[in-house]
Design a protein that fits this description.
Low-confidence stretches: 1-9, 11-32, 34-97, 462-481, 502-507
Subcellular location: Plastid, Chloroplast
Number of helices: 19
Helix content: 40-55%
Strand order of the largest sheet: 4-3-5-6
Enzyme class: lyase
Catalytic activity: heme b + 2 H(+) = protoporphyrin IX + Fe(2+)
Function: Catalyzes the ferrous insertion into protoporphyrin IX.
Number of strands: 10
Mean pLDDT: 78
Shape: globular
Radius of gyration: 24 Å
Largest sheet: 4 strands, parallel
Distance between the termini: 65 Å
Structural class: alpha/beta
Protein name: Ferrochelatase
Strand content: 5-15%
Length: 507
């Protein structure tokens, strides 16, 4: 196929057809998947008002329940419904309000200026879903977060300085919110769209305060992470759950969560559009390696806590590659994971190792595809565009390209609007996973109970020896020993060097 034909295939912006060949089929479940499916089934039983199903289901029935599809037609409210009068509370608290619809976009956040880098990193490391310490030393988390953020801030500040002095994530996410507002109105829904960041302004708490002031009655919660992970979407949702429970005014807020949306046709189609467009810029488009780089998570999160991130990521790549192939490209592809920190094992293969291996094996053209990011930020603009590009060139790769983040891509935004409309009928209830999605859509508490409900202590993403501290402290005893261990662990976290393990091996 020549370049002109390739360009023509990209410009058609064809969506995946709604045929059985493009629908997910049930997969063989692992033991962890069966346990998760059983948890989802219990939630579904609790959320229904009809006759209760038997508590003990056969394994096959549980698997089928977890993987059954549930197509939902787009919901278009009538004008009268948007102004419906609702009653809340009782006695003096009784009030009449418009049934306003709100959409809350959740994202990571990023420092606006170089002065914000250290406090932003503190918020990140202080999150127990990012660094999970055993119960006996959880009290050390604020001190650990301060030490880590102080140690890592100078290097991180250099990265932010190289992309303009701060993260563009806040402004880009607000642009996405504005575009989503317009798209929803064009589809017949007058909704307010809010932005809530986990680790920087505007914080989730700030967004909820505005939601209260606007008297929103129905809320669709939409994390801007295509794939669900307990360390990204899960962290934001746990914070949101805590606030909704503690704030009396928000306790009655009807809501639903769209936990992941990597399988949606608009998202897949938009990604395929961008890949096709970038491929035509290479001298030999058919021989370009499609290099999907996803944000990494510690391997223990997947294997011990049941995080569905890896499985959803692999399915996401399969869908995108299939759509790109449908448009005439049969390029070889690689999935790798970036942004690992410290000596603990993360999901593999690692991005840097894969780039070097591909170069060693003779790859000359590579197109980087940041697949877990929908907005440009430091991991695309600095880590991929600068660090990984330099590594690729050193590894013998002659032609390099990078697919831009979706940002306010119209197909992508319109698809998010459709997702919101389809979610509205599920406000206040739990839906069965649709399109074989691994995470059920529904209310916060019910959703989070289906995943990692025990919240066991896991090896920290940036340290391999933290869990040893308790046993060693019991042996050494004394506050001085604890201080020494804390200092050693802090150095490990900041440098990535397994100092404590080396000391123990010398004994």
């Amino acid at each position: 196929m020549n370049t002109s034909n390739l360009q023509a295939s990209c410009s058609g912006r064809e969506l995946l057809p709604s045929t059985p060949s493009h629908q997910w089929t049930p997969r063989r479940l692992t033991r962890r998947g069966v346990r998760r499916a059983a948890g989802v089934e219990q939630l579904l039983r609790r959320s229904t008002t009809g006759p209760q199903k038997p508590l003990h289901l056969k394994q096959a029935s549980v698997a089928a329940a977890a993987l059954s599809t549930n197509s939902v037609s787009a919901f278009k409210p009538e004008p009268a419904e948007e102004q419906q009068s609702v009653q809340g509370g009782g006695g003096n608290n009784q009030r009449s309000a418009t049934d306003k619809v709100g959409v809350l976009l959740l994202n990571l956040g990023g420092p606006d200026t170089l002065d914000d880098v250290q406090p932003f990193l503190y918020n990140l490391f202080a999150d127990p879903d990012i660094i999970r310490l055993p119960g006996a030393i959880k009290f050390l988390q604020p001190l650990l977060a301060y030490a880590l953020s102080t140690a890592r801030a100078p290097k991180s500040a250099e990265g932010y300085a190289s992309i303009g002095g701060g993260s563009p994530l806040r402004s880009l996410t607000q642009k996405q919110a504005d575009a989503l507002t317009v798209s929803l109105r064009e589809k017949g829904l007058n909704a307010n769209v809010y932005v809530g960041m986990r680790y920087w302004h505007p914080y989730t708490e700030e967004a909820l305060e505005q939601i209260k002031r606007d008297n929103v009655g129905r809320l669709v919660i939409l994390p801007l992470y295509p794939q669900f992970s307990i360390s990204t979407s899960g962290s934001s949702l746990r914070l949101l759950e805590k606030i909704l429970k503690e704030d009396q005014q928000l306790q009655g807020l009807r809501h639903t969560v769209i936990p992941s949306w990597y399988q949606r046709k608009g998202y897949v189609g938009a990604m395929a559009d961008l890949i096709c467009q970038e491929l035509t810029k290479f001298p030999d488009p058919q021989n370009v390696e499609l290099f999907f780089s996803a944000h990494g998570v510690p391997k223990s999160y997947v294997e011990e806590a049941g995080d569905p991130y890896k499985e959803e990521m692999e399915e996401c790549i399969s869908l995108i590659v299939a759509e790109v192939k449908r448009r005439g490209y049969s390029n070889h592809h690689t999935l790798a994971y970036q942004s690992r920190v410290g000596p603990v094992e993360w999901l593999q293969p690692y991005t840097e190792d894969s780039i070097m291996e591909l170069g060693k094996n003779g790859t000359k053209s590579m197109l980087a595809v940041p697949v877990s990011f929908v907005s440009e930020h430091i991991e695309t603009l600095e880590e991929i565009d600068m660090e990984y590009r330099e590594l690729a060139e050193e590894s013998g790769i002659e032609h390099w390209g990078r697919v831009p983040a979706l940002n306010t891509n119209q197909l992508f935004i319109d698809d998010l609007a459709d997702a919101v409309l389809e979610a509205l009928p599920y406000v206040g209830m739990v839906a069965k996973p649709s399109d074989a999605s691994l995470v059920p859509q529904g209310e916060l508490e019910a959703l989070l109970q289906a995943y990692d409900r025990e919240r066991r202590a896991l090896p920290s993403p940036v340290c391999v020896c933290v869990c040893v501290c308790v046993c060693v402290a019991e042996t050494w005893n004394g506050r001085l020993a604890m201080v020494a261990l804390f200092v050693i662990v802090t150095i490990e976290l900041a440098t990535g060097q397994p100092i404590l393990r080396t000391i123990l091996e010398l004994d």
